[in-house]
Design brief:
Chain lengths: 105, 486
């Protein structure tokens, strides 16, 4: 076995959590310092494979290519259907928290 | 048909009984709803049961049968994994994030089966957002393996697999991103087919990793898998990644046998980490196919060893992008009264996602973040190319590759805590997703009363060949006639 993977720092985990907008508890961050180190170690085998000059593959099936349809109007969901699952709404709009000025306006 | 065993009949047998008026669609639906009410409290394979819709669909199916307009799926009940959109029926993905989510439209597979006369019994339990190999990450409840209630059914399509194995649904649809149809099919002793990437529309499938996700059937017989594929495979203008090839009949040629079929045995799939008994049963199955007329040779796939690492870079990366949509604004879990958008997002996503989903979003975000992208994401995509080429070369020499589906039989609930150890479950199934090729798992025996699965892999769009080989083996062996006690 390889050596014990090096734990991520608390700051490294917090940086990633901010990027993906998950407000983690201190306890979760502590766990993730180890978990992520393990996950990174798991995939480190990739670094030992020679891929010089190899094109990356996005998806693997040649037969798949973008499907285009005619640019004509077709039935869409009703406004009522679209708003059916809205956690908060005002009339026919989704209500969102303040985006500008950190809500201090 | 003997009524007490009706729930273990194949789709084909149920269909024949319906057409012969030996049973009505309503009676068949009721027999299943009763069995679900009696037994699913112990198995936990359903997140929602839909008697109202089911009875409505059974009534129209009966009209179709009575007027001679019925197909093989008409009036036969079924289940859908809870990540497939069902208009008017909650679709939770086994996550608190979508606890109350009622889709305003049907997935293409949902409407395809409805058009074929299917009767929806309910929605199958799963790992949260299809992330897991045991169905233990469901936010609602674990599902238990009908062969041994102390053991997991596998995952992420654990609810579908347990339902079909336990006679709680004649068939179900699962999704397979890294083995999520084949691994639970193996653990539960049934048939699970992951089709070629793009063959079955994913419109209305809640996305996990979009370059890997594929929908496919879980059934008790190979012929049933072919019948379900006939209803769900084919191009769809609503899915930009669907293969634009006309639908074909997968039952044609099913019974043609394996004489002259070239089978490749891959030594890399019989090595470290594979239970020797699983390896032994797999080799016995290969021998049986050889006796049936197949030609067996050895094919080496050295890069397959890297497939798990490729998968655990690509799938979290794609999941972190796909799950960015859960913002608590348009639908889903939402924490009220946050002072601003950033706080609302962080609280919503902290409260709505379970730890496994968070871990994968975090890992994917890390792999895609500035400074790491080339080392992880791009590197994984390059190794993906090597794996794909290796399969392409193998399929120049052989028609089908045979491997174990899983390294072991079903493990106990709570037995595996370390995520990296859990990932090892996917080691034999992940390469097919990486290469976009189809794979099927069929039962090939038991170890200490627990089912073992045999995996057959083929080139892109070789489903008919896989089904033919699987059918030949199934018909020569007794495994598909064995079911859990009660």
């Amino acid at each position: 076995m390889t050596e014990q993977p090096k734990r991520l720092t608390e700051d490294e985990v917090r940086r990633v959590a901010t990027l993906c907008r998950i407000g983690l508890s201190d306890e979760e961050i502590e766990h993730l310092r180890d978990d992520m180190a393990g996950l990174i170690a798991e995939v480190s085998v990739l670094q030992s494979i020679d891929t010089s000059g190899v094109e990356p593959t996005g998806h693997a099936v040649e037969e798949v290519h973008s499907v285009m349809r005619d640019d004509t109007a077709r039935p869409a969901l009703t406004v009522a259907d679209v708003l059916l699952n809205a956690p908060r709404r005002e009339g026919d709009y989704f209500r969102v928290p303040a985006v500008m000025d950190n809500g201090q306006s | 048909m003997a009524d007490q065993h009706i729930h273990y009949q194949s789709v084909r047998q149920m269909s024949d009984a319906l057409h012969a008026n030996e049973i009505s669609a309503a009676e068949l639906a009721d027999a299943h709803f009763k069995r679900i009410a009696d037994l699913d409290g112990r198995v936990g394979s359903y997140l929602a049961v839909t008697p109202d819709l089911g009875h409505e669909q059974a009534a129209s199916a009966q009209s179709a049968i009575d007027s001679g307009n019925a197909g093989p799926l008409t009036g036969v009940p079924m289940q859908l994994k809870d990540n497939m959109a069902t208009r008017g029926v909650t679709t939770t993905c086994a996550s608190l994030m979508l606890e109350h989510f009622v889709p305003p439209y049907d997935a293409t597979v949902t409407s395809a089966l409805a058009n074929a006369g299917a009767v929806l019994l309910g929605k199958g339990n799963m790992d949260e957002f299809a992330m897991g190999s045991s169905t233990e990450t469901s936010a609602y409840k674990p599902t238990r393996n009908p062969w041994d209630l102390d053991r997991v059914p596998g995952g992420s399509s654990g609810g579908p697999a347990a339902s079909v194995a336990g006679g709680l649904a004649p068939y179900s649809l699962g999704s397979d991103t890294g083995g999520s149809i084949r691994q639970p099919a193996s653990f539960c002793g049934i048939v699970g087919l992951k089709p070629t990437y793009g063959l079955v529309s994913r419109y209305g499938l809640i996305a996990f990793a979009s370059s890997l996700d594929q929908i496919g059937p879980l059934t008790r017989t190979v012929e049933d898998a072919a019948l379900v594929m006939n209803a769900i495979a084919g191009p769809d203008v609503n899915d930009s990644t669907s293969i634009s090839r006309p639908a074909i009949d997968y039952t044609i040629g099913l019974k043609d046998g394996v004489k002259g079929l070239r089978i490749g045995v891959v030594p890399e799939y019989f090595g470290e980490g594979i239970d020797p008994e699983v390896a032994r049963l797999t080799r016995e199955a290969i021998k049986q196919l050889e006796e049936l007329g197949a030609e067996v040779s050895e094919v080496s796939l050295p890069n397959s060893k890297a497939a798990l690492a490729v998968y655990y870079v690509l799938s979290p990366s794609e999941c972190s992008a796909n799950l960015a949509r859960y913002d608590g604004v348009k639908y889903g879990f939402s924490t009220p009264d946050a002072p601003n958008m950033m706080a609302a997002l962080e609280a919503t996503r902290d409260g709505g996602f379970g730890i496994e989903v968070k871990r994968r979003i975090m890992m994917g975000t890390y792999a895609l973040s500035s400074g790491y992208y080339d080392a992880y994401y791009k590197k994984a995509q390059q190794v993906r190319t090597l794996i794909r080429r290796e399969f392409d070369a193998a399929f120049e020499k052989v028609d089908v590759l045979i491997t174990p589906t899983t390294p072991t039989t079903a493990f106990k609930l709570g037995e595996i805590q370390d995520p990296v150890v859990m990932h090892a479950n996917d080691v034999c199934t992940v390469p097919a997703n990486i290469a976009g090729i189809p794979g099927i798992s069929i039962p090939c025996g038991t170890i200490d009363g627990l089912p073992v699965g045999l995996q057959l892999l083929g080139a892109h769009l070789s489903e008919a060949t896989l089904l033919r080989a699987a059918y030949a083996y199934e018909q020569a062996t007794p495994w598909h006639t064995q079911h859990p006690a009660n």
